[in-house]
Amino acid sequence: MKLSSLKFFRNLRRDNKQYAVIGLGRFGRAVCSSLHRLGYEVLGTDIDEKLVAQALTDQIVSHAVQLDSTEPAALKEAGIFEFDTVIIAIGNYLQESIVTTLNVKEARVPHVVAKASSEVHGKLLQRVGADHVVFPEYEAGCALARLLTQPSILERFELDPNNSIVEVLVPEEFHGKTVTELELRNRFGVNLLAIGQNDQFEINPDPNKRLYKGLAMVIIGSNQDIDRLPI
Hints:
There is one protein chain. This protein has helices at residues 6-10, 26-37, 49-57, 72-77, 94-106, 119-127, 136-149, 179-182, 184-188, 223-226, and strands at 18-22, 41-46, 63-66, 85-88, 111-115, 132-134, 153-160, 163-169, 191-197, 200-203, 216-222. By secondary structure, it is an alpha/beta fold. Strands 3-2-1-4-5-6 form a six-stranded parallel β-sheet, with helices on both faces. It is elongated, with a radius of gyration of 22 Å.
């Protein structure tokens, strides 16, 4: 997630308990399933009646409706325009995705998240009003590449294209050394924010704290400097 995305998520209502998901392919089903499992009310829609029926059978939605999302009247009748947040999970059908996004934003739905299948697709979605655009395939591919090439990096938060906060496992070279002895800022140009284990973190750790394999470090720095770490 990039820092530019935070404005969108900060504006979401904390008490929002209802979501509409348009498109019940693999991505849409995953969104529905996760939201429904977390206890939120989810309305799923798709033009394919079989996908609608399957979502109901699998109990991944609270309600499901078969409709053509390129038709504003159908969206209005289904109550889509009354939702605070709508996720448009149509990725492979460019025209349908863009028209649906336009329909929902013209109806003044406050928060619209749209799935894009390419950079051009994403730009078009933003042009017609999408508040937040996601690239699931691209993001999954990047995550897999990082996992394969840098398995010690557990989490990454991108502040911007050049800087990140990462959670990494303590490498062999750091084992048994104190924070002071590591001289992370002088040697690598990064700053240590926290040290933790089992989701319990010590923020701004004591300079005399020793690091051991199995611990995790939270580090902030440029991507170039982070890549210099022996991980």
